């Protein structure tokens, strides 16, 4: 029977070997090739107990391969690993867990029909007299969740929980294995600022109790905040390392991309005065209500708010993925009936979802096939889709989006940045009137981010009305003409670019009551010119 997890997961005797040494996890000369192509070359890493190692690099730099090797998911072609001076050579993730090494994936893997506790103990449910000991399972789950600062009921079903809550369950599941070394792979990719800070608190708790943490993130401020040491990979090689987390963003980016890089957001060009999309009194019972706004052709409207504010649920309704039971949607001044994604597409509305692997791409099909899949009826000749047509259509998007990979291979083998560009290209084969981008740069490196920003600005300049939802406040403020802020399923205000400071946005995002006391002068429902289009 498993013991109830205590608040002292990492005692001194668990992070030292028999000789009293705390050598930690040491990786020397890790190398890996696929089909003759080297993806990792002679990479060295060292992680001591009670410390955080920040691992950075562009997509395709070798971060995922390195973490997969350490976690026993991939076998290296060369190199060696030791833990506390003892040879560490995992043949599988199960071997890694037995040795005290756990990987918390970027993609959350929950069985939504099961309870929180069942997900935490999935595959190793505690048994008593031939039956699942649910009392013990719930007690242990509640204890580990409490350690993480979560009050989620372990008996409730996972379905309906926020991404932030599911992330906590993912962490709890790993911690029940009592690992000594934990790899966090982009844990904040789906989280807002407050939820991310909560994950930081959890990592600090684990570090202070003696765990060694590898933290992988494209958000460089997170690396600088958390890491005790930083290692940078580029093209599968270790190119820089710092014995402190206090490294300038410019130095890290220079190492990542191999050149000087300027962090800046260009102000978007002026939008037209022609309204492309208008939403009046949109609502869905129990989810969001009273949404009023208009987006002009050539305008970028940013959506901000904490996780659970209702942003994604609202735009999914506009895009036909969910139904609304109040209000109306107008495209080019004409009310449209959105009964599903296809009717939204026919009305000129396209949406790029936040979960590219779960909702946006077929990972087993090629990049070219993914791009053309929604448009096959219009691309066929005599009912036949030719390879030539598929490739020609895909190559146009490849050039426009600067996709730096072959498109005749399964999209699941592409880097995160190239996958995101393929997903974007999929909805740009025919230019939509309205393009909704939910977390458009989630889990992509800084180079891919800048390329996607350039594409967004270019589309706006071509007259596309764009809605951008992002958990990165800098991204929303940098891209947008205006920013709409939501909290608790309600619209709290629309701020012009000049007024959309981080302080102003967060003040609206933190409103929890139903009053309108904090509304800015540019009221919800107003057009870019400041008048209400719904009155």
From TrEMBL:
Alphabetical list of CDD domains matching this protein: ABC_Carb_Monos_I, ABC_Carb_Monos_II
ABC transporter domain: which residues? 25-260, 266-513
Write out the coiled-coil annotation as residue ranges. none
Q: Name one GO molecular function term.
A: ATP binding
Q: What domain of life does the native source organism fall in?
A: Bacteria
InterPro entries for this protein? AAA+_ATPase (IPR003593), ABC_carbohydrate_import_ATPase (IPR050107), ABC_transporter-like_ATP-bd (IPR003439), ABC_transporter-like_CS (IPR017871), P-loop_NTPase (IPR027417)
Keyword field:
ATP-binding, Cell membrane, Membrane, Nucleotide-binding, Repeat, Sugar transport, Translocase, Transport
**What PANTHER family does the database record attribute to this sequence?**
CARBOHYDRATE TRANSPORT ATP-BINDING PROTEIN MG119-RELATED, D-ALLOSE IMPORT ATP-BINDING PROTEIN ALSA-RELATED
Entry protein name: Ribose transport system ATP-binding protein
Q: Which organism was this protein described from? A: Cryobacterium levicorallinum
């Amino acid at each position: 029977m498993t013991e109830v997890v205590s608040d002292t997961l990492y005692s001194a005797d668990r992070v030292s070997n028999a000789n009293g040494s705390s050598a930690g996890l040491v990786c020397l000369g890790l190398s890996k090739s696929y089909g003759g192509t080297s993806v990792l070359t002679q990479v060295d890493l060292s992680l001591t107990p009670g410390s955080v190692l920040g691992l950075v690099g562009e997509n395709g730099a070798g971060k995922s391969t390195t973490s997969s090797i350490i976690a026993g998911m991939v076998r290296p072609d060369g190199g060696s690993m030791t833990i506390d001076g003892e040879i560490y050579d995992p043949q599988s993730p199960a071997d890694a867990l037995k040795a005290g090494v756990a990987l918390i994936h970027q993609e959350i893997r929950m069985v939504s029909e099961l309870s929180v506790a069942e997900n935490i103990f999935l595959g190793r449910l505690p048994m008593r007299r031939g039956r699942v000991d649910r009392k013990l399972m719930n007690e242990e789950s509640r204890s580990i969740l409490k350690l993480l600062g979560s009050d989620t009921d372990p008996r409730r079903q996972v379905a309906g929980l926020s991404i932030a809550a599911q992330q906590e369950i993912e962490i709890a599941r790993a911690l029940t294995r009592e690992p000594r070394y934990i790899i966090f792979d982009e844990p904040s990719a789906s989280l807002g600022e407050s939820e991310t800070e909560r994950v930081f608190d959890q990592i600090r708790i684990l570090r202070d109790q003696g765990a060694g943490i590898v933290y992988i993130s494209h958000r460089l401020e997170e690396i600088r905040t958390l890491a005790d040491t930083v290692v940078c990979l580029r093209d599968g090689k270790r190119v820089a390392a710092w014995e402190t987390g206090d490294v300038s963003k410019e130095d890290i980016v220079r190492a990542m991309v191999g050149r000087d890089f300027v962090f800046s957001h260009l102000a978007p060009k002026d939008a037209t005065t022609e309204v492309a999309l208008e939403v009046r009194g949109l609502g869905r019972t129990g989810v969001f209500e009273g949404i009023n706004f208009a987006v002009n052709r050539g305008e970028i409207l940013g959506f901000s708010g904490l996780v659970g504010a209702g942003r994604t649920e609202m735009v999914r309704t506009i895009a036909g993925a969910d139904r609304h039971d109040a209000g109306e949607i107008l495209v080019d001044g004409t009310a449209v009936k959105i009964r599903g994604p296809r009717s939204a597409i026919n009305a000129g509305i396209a949406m790029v979802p936040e979960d590219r692997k779960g909702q946006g791409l077929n990972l087993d099909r090629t990049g070219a096939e993914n791009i053309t899949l929604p448009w096959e009826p219009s691309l066929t000749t005599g009912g036949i889709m030719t390879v030539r047509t598929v490739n020609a259509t895909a190559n146009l998007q490849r050039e426009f989006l600067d996709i730096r990979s072959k498109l005749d291979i399964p999209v699941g083998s592409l880097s995160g940045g190239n996958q995101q560009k393929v997903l974007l290209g999929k909805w740009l084969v025919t230019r939509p009137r309205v393009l909704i981008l939910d977390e458009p740069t989630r889990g992509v490196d800084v180079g891919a981010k800048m390329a996607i920003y350039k594409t967004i600005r270019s589309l706006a300049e071509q007259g596309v009305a764009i809605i951008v939802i992002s958990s990165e406040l800098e991204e929303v403020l940098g891209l947008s003409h205006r920013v709409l802020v939501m909290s608790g399923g309600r619209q709290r205000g629309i701020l012009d670019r000049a007024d959309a400071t981080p302080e102003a946005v967060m003040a609206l995002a933190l409103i929890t009551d139903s009053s309108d006391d904090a509304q800015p002068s540019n009221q919800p429902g107003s057009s870019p010119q400041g008048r209400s289009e719904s009155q």
